[in-house]
Write a structure and sequence with these properties.
six-stranded parallel beta sheet, alpha/beta, 17 strands, 2 domains, Polysacch_pyruvyl_Trfase, single chain, FrhB_FdhB_C, Coenzyme F420 hydrogenase/dehydrogenase beta subunit C-terminal domain-containing protein, 17% strand, six-stranded mixed beta sheet, Co_F420_Hydgase/DH_bsu_N, Rossmann fold
């Protein structure tokens, strides 16, 4: 469906919503849809209008969850007064209204939208505050055909006449929306995305129209409409056809011409994004744009080098303690995921913990791959645990040369490099002459070195001629009790009883 060009120009899609709204206004009715509230930091909320002049408030896509307030109650009052009401919203919102009303009304027209998910109002508010807090915003449009035509985009117009316009693949909010990292949990398992739909009429973008019929594709917007019941058919039969350029009936298989469209009609069962929980935690600590570049481009203030996928709980807690404290100090941190190519990646331990508590790079199997990290990370921290131990990577007994990944040998000289509570694991160092030369070369790149044991200070001086070395506490002991309690609360273990402990290296 395509409305006349003057209607499509001010619409996100093909203009069907405007046509349906006019149908209601002609009958003295009311239209309810999502609008930006300029007076409340541009939050999205459902409002009711009864004049065509106010329709501009409801036009346009809003990729944010709407606040319904008491709108369902207002709609019920209008229906009980025998008024026509059109309600437009995501299918879950339409289902919510139906559940609230508990009965069908002849003069209620429900329009559900083809929805790819909605985002949290808090995330939306954070994005706006950090990017436009010092500007007087006049209008916000996600899709303005005057700027980029029929496509997802972001446009902000200011009181002084200036504007900010960006295509979706460059705008941080749109990029993150498309990634689905910040989608609400309920959207991953949507119960209302499949057929049969919950509204009388379903409208959305006709993605793939260029493949279905290139002759009517003009980049100005085409609506895909599903008439779901007799009430919806009666509305379509009686709308003002003079405002429509094209209204064609098609077979249901047209939805297969584009994966976006086809996906709207299958029961949604997405896996919740592995990065979602870490994303929400980082969003409380860092700027929105910084978090976007972190997750989508691998940008970070600090890259943490340590044992990855260890079966040793203490080692993991040490790594997490360093990671957690770096974040609290204001450094956006990423754990460098290094698994040597000869190690079976399937034997990666504690995956659930890593997914929930770490932001990680992509897996690296070879040293030469890791040089690219210098493009995206400013500071590298090695630590902690026995990462300075000879043979920590299990190279020598296989006859391979030393790569010293845990000594951050892949880090460029122009990067800041720090070791924190690193350990040799022994009071002696077993590396041969050539290994010591290479290890010394790697250690000379460090800007600051701290170690876990007093013996390590002597080894640094004696073997590698490094004087300025500091002994620090085991990182696990600087982890807040509150953090430990959160980790313990995640445990699926139910048994209670005695606690066993032992001394690894007793001195007496």
């Amino acid at each position: 469906m395509q409305a006349k060009d003057e209607i499509r120009q001010v619409s996100s899609l093909g203009g069907m919503f405007t046509i349906l709204a006019d149908y209601i206004f002609e009958r003295g009715g009311f239209v309810c849809g999502a609008a930006f509230n300029k007076n409340e930091n541009w939050k999205v909320e459902h409002i009711i209008i009864d004049k065509k002049e106010d329709l501009y408030k409801l036009r346009g896509s809003k990729y944010v969850q709407s606040d319904k307030k008491d709108i369902f109650k207002q709609i019920k009052e209008l229906l009980n007064k025998d008024k026509y009401v059109l309600f437009s919203g995501c299918p879950c919102e339409v289902a919510g209204l139906k559940n609230f009303l508990r009965k069908d009304y002849d003069k209620l027209i429900l329009v559900d939208l083809l929805c790819g998910s909605v985002e949290s109002p808090k995330i939306w508010e954070k994005y706006l505050k950090e990017n436009f807090f010092d500007k007087k915003v006049k209008e916000i449009k996600f899709r303005d055909k005057n700027s980029f035509g029929w496509a997802l985009q972001f446009n902000v117009y200011f009181e002084n006449g200036n504007s900010y316009r960006e295509v979706a693949w460059k705008n941080e909010y749109c990029r993150f929306y498309e990634s689905k990292i910040m989608s609400r949990k309920s959207c991953y398992k949507c119960s209302f995305s499949s057929l049969p739909r919950v509204g009388e009429i379903t409208i959305g973008d006709f993605w793939g129209i260029d493949k279905y019929n290139s002759e009517i594709y003009d980049s100005k917007g085409t609506s895909l409409i599903f008439v779901n019941n007799d009430k919806g058919k009666n509305v379509i039969d009686n709308i003002n056809k003079e405002s429509i350029s094209i209204l064609n009936e098609m077979e249901l298989n047209i939805i297969g011409f584009h994966p976006n469209t086809a996906g709207f009609f299958n029961r949604r069962n997405w896996n919740i994004n592995d990065k979602r929980e870490v994303f929400l935690k980082k969003l409380k600590l860092f700027d929105f744009n910084k978090v976007v570049h972190h997750f989508l481009e691998g940008k970070a203030d600090v890259g943490l080098v340590g044992f990855n996928g260890s079966a040793n709980y203490g080692s993991i807690l040490n790594t997490y303690s360093v990671y957690n404290n770096l974040e609290k100090l204001g450094y956006n941190t990423m754990l460098i995921s290094y698994i040597p190519y000869f190690v079976n990646a399937k034997h990666f331990y504690n995956k659930k913990f890593h997914k929930k508590y770490f932001s990680k790079t992509k897996p690296y199997r070879y040293k030469y791959e890791m040089y690219e990290l210098n493009n995206d990370i400013d500071i590298f921290v090695a630590g902690s645990d026995q990462i300075f131990r000879y043979n920590a990577e299990n190279w020598d007994h296989r006859g391979r040369k030393y790569f010293n990944i845990f000594y951050s040998s892949f880090v460029s000289y122009n990067k800041q490099l720090i070791s924190f509570a690193s350990s040799f694991g022994h009071s002696t160092y077993s590396g041969d002459y050539y290994n010591r030369i290479y290890t010394n070369y790697c250690l000379q790149k460090f800007d600051h070195i701290s170690v876990r044991e007093k013996d390590a200070i002597g080894l640094m001086k004696r073997l590698f001629n490094i004087e300025n070395v500091e002994q620090v506490i085991e990182p696990v002991f600087i982890l807040d009790y509150e953090e430990l309690d959160k980790i313990i609360a995640d445990s699926s273990l139910t048994h209670k009883g005695k606690l066993a402990y032992y001394f690894l290296d007793p001195t007496k």
